[in-house]
Amino acid sequence: MKTKSVSSHLNRGINNKGFSLMELIVVIAIMAVFVAVAIASSSILSTSNVKEVEQGIEDYVTMARTKSMSVSAKEWYMMVTVEDGDYVTKLCKTVEESVGETTELKTVEVDENDYNHSVTVTFKDGVSSWVIDEATPLCIYFDSATGKASKVTVAGTNASIANGIGRIEISDGSYDIVMKIFYNTGKCERE
Question: Would 7 be classed as within a structural domain?
């Protein structure tokens, strides 16, 4: 008799349509975990993109400053620009080259690194602000005797260095880093 009542009870359960409340709660909890992991991964990736560009700019400022004091050239500078949609940092030097009886200045790109990230780099000199792109490259020139930033140009125009500090802002829309360039020392640090 017990067998019949158990089997008839089980048969009624088979005909039920839909999900139990417990099954729905478990599915929603699993989906919430996946969404949280996806959001955290996106945030970490976004943060790492901005930090990678920041580290590249800092490295090239340091290299240009060091080279200006140790390796002979007319001038050393670092450049931040955009090429083919990617941000590029470059280490450059200007050298004098003899052409017949005249001497010409020639720019030589010594090293470069590109970043295939969707970030925006902005330079502020305390007076003006520029978004760095293909048409507006940022160049920071260094003095060979002292290593200080002797000149800053954006799109070939001199930026003001009178206030002693320039700011480079790197952003991807959700995460920002601001770097300060100290003109008197040629060093940079995160703000």
Answer: no
Does 105 fall in a domain? Answer: yes
Total count of domains within the chain: 1
- List the domain range (segments joined by +) for residue 78: 21-190
Whole-model pTM over 0.70: yes
Helices (H) and strands (E) in the chain, counts: 2, 11
* 147 within a domain of the structure (yes/no): yes
Q: How many angstroms separate the CA atoms of 99 and 81, rounded? A: 30
Mean pLDDT by 10 residues, the chain (191 residues): 52 64 87 78 67 89 91 89 89 86 85 81 93 94 91 93 92 89 91 84
Please check whether residue 2 lies inside any domain of the structure: no
Evaluated on CA atoms 151, 152, 155, 157, the torsion sign reads negative
Please state, in angstroms and rounded to a whole number, the distance separating the CA atoms of residues 12 and 1: 17
Asked whether the beta carbons of 88 and 140 are under 8 A apart, the reply is no
Q: Which helix (H) or strand (E) covers residue 141, if one does?
A: strand 138-142
| Distance in angstroms (rounded) separating the CA atoms of residues 31 and 26 | 9
